[in-house]
Specification:
heterotrimer; A alpha/beta (178); B mainly alpha (388); C alpha/beta (178); B: 388 residues; mainly alpha; Cytochrome-c3 Hydrogenase, chain B; 2 domains; 3-stranded antiparallel sheet; 17 helices; 49% helix; globular; C: 178 residues; alpha/beta; Rossmann fold; 4-stranded parallel sheet
């Protein structure tokens, strides 16, 4: 649990969720340009990539990267929120080779484009028939704040207000450089 | 007879044409699968061969994509449970556990102690049956027809046990959020206590007949050298990473159930090759028997399902969770997001085989084709969990 | 994500007539064939494990002649479709069927091969609802997965279909239907 592992990386929101309920030790929301440097830090710190998971919300497509450590267990989630129209995220496949397949799977299911993925071919769906089946109809989408409870917010960019506290008992939020 | 194949079907499909656009080599492009006796399901691997050596390999997936993650959004929480048995049918109880564990986390549902012990007993029995089938099928791929006969013989005893408690032979939907579906029959614990020494007596025979067999050793030793760094780059877990020297087991790293109260070792090998992964799984057979011995002694009386467990149209509280268990193939993860309705908003299934297979392309470069078969077997793949 | 309009390619099913067609000879040959059916190992999913179990010592399909599972369709005369047929593998299934020499039979094992099984839901996009959309099926063996005894009963009924009479005792269940 090296608190400095993300020092200097622009963070939209950092939270310490309820570990027993969420399974996460740390939860960070990043701008797309921040994902590659953050993942490089995790690679250098000995983490491995568990999976990359997509979530279609009213506020965009949330791409969640789950990392864990063989010797110091504690799951870290990195998240990037991408717009529905042109969801684009830089690829981390050049850092963790296993990400290539996870990213291709997300492209199949959500249509997210991972720029720099060495092999952007459909993975699970038939090559000629990619229909982004996990995208939801607009009426079924729910906003991020109604799905995820970030827990204790450590730092927050005020523009990233999807988790604006609904009551006054949340921890104080600090402004972060963006 | 008229030929109705299109020109594309004759000259190859999208995947082989794309594969051929790779480096220009004087090689033979060969499709291994999707119908192949040794790919353990519908896996297709396109190979560029120079004689018997693999220059490039690329797995093509999706031949068994059964839309599990999309189905989650169309089923209630309880109605989705049978899917878990089909994701990895060989260790169905572990996938059951990963899912009900995630639901329990979201819902704040407790599990009675007796149910926790029943879960451990059935999960470890299932793990033994999964490893036995892996073992028999691996030897079958390498050309030995006898071990699978013995493996299935032992496996049938386990299937009888699990059938007596759950009703199914293979695709169990036995766990429930809050416990298990049925309590143990009266004779079950005695039968398990009789099974443990029977299995223990078989293991030396397997060792003498197969593990120490010089043909197996030549087929497995120094085949598929997988350094730990490569495991980390691809996220490989389970016996694959334990065969490369890292004693990482989710039952100890993120403890769940009553595993903290049970003593067992984590078999680890340092050889990094197919033989190492083989020996890890054989060691796990012995450790499963250890766990079973302790569990059948320690199991308390009590409820098998918590009062007030979710009924069919139960609504999960809003939230998100990630729950991982140790399956026979590695770390099984379920990432569950709820919007407060009676169907999951999102259920992402993290399959260990997906990450384990992703390293095959790099691992198989430069190996003999026959060694590639041995490598695939040593990864213990079940394609439905990879394709989901 | 509406279900796309899939064109499922059916296999070519014309078969040439036998060169010599003497009824008594054909009857004798049919008995020999049915007692020595060579299945093709075409296990797609979970049902394949029960197919393996039926070939092993406890249930022993060898007693009834069908233990020679051939990986190659060219050497087999019974295609046991055990598992789910997806749109991606459907052309492969059709091609394998066409590669089998006549006379050939198809046994659809498991609910997926019969009708799509548990994977039918409104908006499903990947599963062919029954292998009989592609091939002519001779015997349907229901179950999810069917017990090995059900496999054997399917084999017996196929033998009855091939030869015109049943060779083995009826199952001793009350209300068992033929």
């Amino acid at each position: 649990m090296n608190d400095d592992v993300f020092a200097g990386i622009p963070v939209l929101l950092e939270a310490r969720p309820d570990r027993n309920r969420s399974g996460l030790l740390r939860d960070l929301y990043l701008i797309p340009e921040g994902i590659v440097p953050a993942v490089e830090r995790l690679f250098a710190a000995g983490y491995h990539l568990e999976d990359i998971s997509g979530l279609d919300t009213k506020d965009g497509i949330l791409v969640s990267y789950h990392f864990d450590h063989f010797e110091k267990p504690g799951r870290i989630a990195l998240r990037v929120l991408s717009p529905h129209d042109t969801p684009k995220v830089p690829s981390i496949a050049n850092i963790f080779d296993g990400a290539q397949w996870h990213e291709r799977e997300l492209s199949d299911f959500y249509g997210v484009v991972f720029e720099g993925n060495p092999n952007p071919t459909p993975l699970l769906l038939p090559a000629t028939d990619v229909t982004t089946p996990l995208r939801k109809a607009e009426a079924s989408r729910v906003s991020l704040g109604d799905l995820i409870d970030p827990g204790e917010i450590v730092q927050m960019d005020p523009r990233f207000d999807y988790f604006a506290p609904k009551d006054n008992t949340d921890a104080e939020s600090k402004e972060a450089e963006a | 007879m008229k030929h109705h194949l299109s020109p594309e079907q004759i000259s190859g499909d999208f995947y082989s044409r794309r594969f051929e656009q790779g480096p220009d080599e004087d090689t033979l492009i060969l499709n291994m699968g999707p119908q192949h006796p040794s790919t353990h399901g519908v896996l297709r691997i396109i190979l560029a061969l120079d004689g018997e050596y693999i220059m490039r390999a690329e797995p093509v997936l999706g031949y068994l994509h059964r839309m599990h993650e999309a189905m989650a959004e169309h089923r209630t929480y309880l109605g989705y449970l049978p899917n878990m048995g089909r994701v990895d049918y060989l260790h169905a109880v572990a996938w059951n556990w990963a899912y009900v564990g995630a639901v329990e986390r979201l819902g704040g549902i407790e599990v009675p102690r007796r149910a926790e012990y029943i879960r451990v007993i059935t999960c470890e029995l299932n793990r033994i049956s999964s490893h036995l089938l892996w073992w028999g099928a691996y030897l079958l791929d390498l050309g030995a027809f006898t071990p699978i006969m013995y493996a299935f013989d032992d496996r049938e005893i386990i299937l009888d046990l699990l059938q007596s408690v759950s009703g199914s032979r293979l695709t169990y939907s036995f766990l429930r959020p809050g416990g298990v579906a049925f309590d143990l029959p009266d004779t079950f614990l005695d039968e398990v206590k009789a099974f443990i020494p029977h299995m223990r007596a078989r293991l030396p025979m397997y060792k003498a007949l197969v593990t120490d067999n010089t043909i197996l050793r030549h087929r497995c030793e120094e085949v598929g050298d997988l350094p730990l760094e490569m495991c980390r780059r691809y996220g490989a877990t389970g016996p694959v990473v334990r065969g490369s020297g890292m004693a990482y087991d989710v039952r100890r790293a993120e403890p769940y159930g009553v595993y903290p109260e049970l003593e067992f070792e984590i078999p680890t090998e340092n050889s990094q090759d197919a033989m190492g992964r083989y020996l890890v799984r054989m060691g796990e057979l012995e450790q499963c028997l250890n766990i079973l011995e302790q569990a059948v002694q320690a199991i308390p009386e009590g409820e098998h399902l918590i009062k007030g467990a979710p009924k069919p149209r139960w609504k999960a509280p809003v939230g998100e969770t990630y729950f991982a268990v140790e399956g026979a193939r590695g770390k099984i993860g379920v990432h569950l997001v709820s919007d407060g309705s009676s169907t999951p908003y999102r259920c992402k299934l993290r399959a260990p085989g997906f990450s384990n297979l992703s390293l095959f392309a790099e691992l198989a470069e430069g190996t003999l084709l026959a060694d590639a078969v041995s490598i695939l077997g040593s990864l213990d793949l079940v394609i439905p969990e990879i394709d989901r | 994500m509406a279900s796309p309009d899939h064109q499922v390619v059916s296999a070519v099913t014309e078969q040439d007539a036998p060169i010599v067609h003497l009824k008594l000879a054909q009857q004798a040959l049919d008995i020999c064939r049915s007692m020595s059916l060579w299945p093709m190992t075409f296990g797609l999913a979970c049902c394949a494990i029960e197919m393996m179990a039926v070939g092993m010592a406890r249930f022993d399909i060898a007693r009834f002649g069908a233990e020679v599972f051939r990986p190659s369709p060219r050497q087999s005369d019974l295609m046991i479709v055990a598992g789910t047929v997806t749109h991606k593998i459907a052309p492969v299934v059709a091609r394998l069927y066409e590669q089998m020499p006549a006379p050939k039979w198809v046994m659809a094992v498991g609910n997926c091969a019969i009708s799509g099984g548990p994977f039918c839901y409104p908006g499903q996009y990947s599963v062919v609802e029954g292998v009989d959309q592609i091939l002519p099926v001779d015997i349907y063996v229901p179950g999810c997965p069917p017990r090995p005894e059900a496999f054997l009963e399917g084999l017996f009924q196929l033998q009855e279909k091939v030869t015109g009479r049943r060779w083995w005792p009826e199952p001793a269940t009350k209300g068992g239907r033929r």
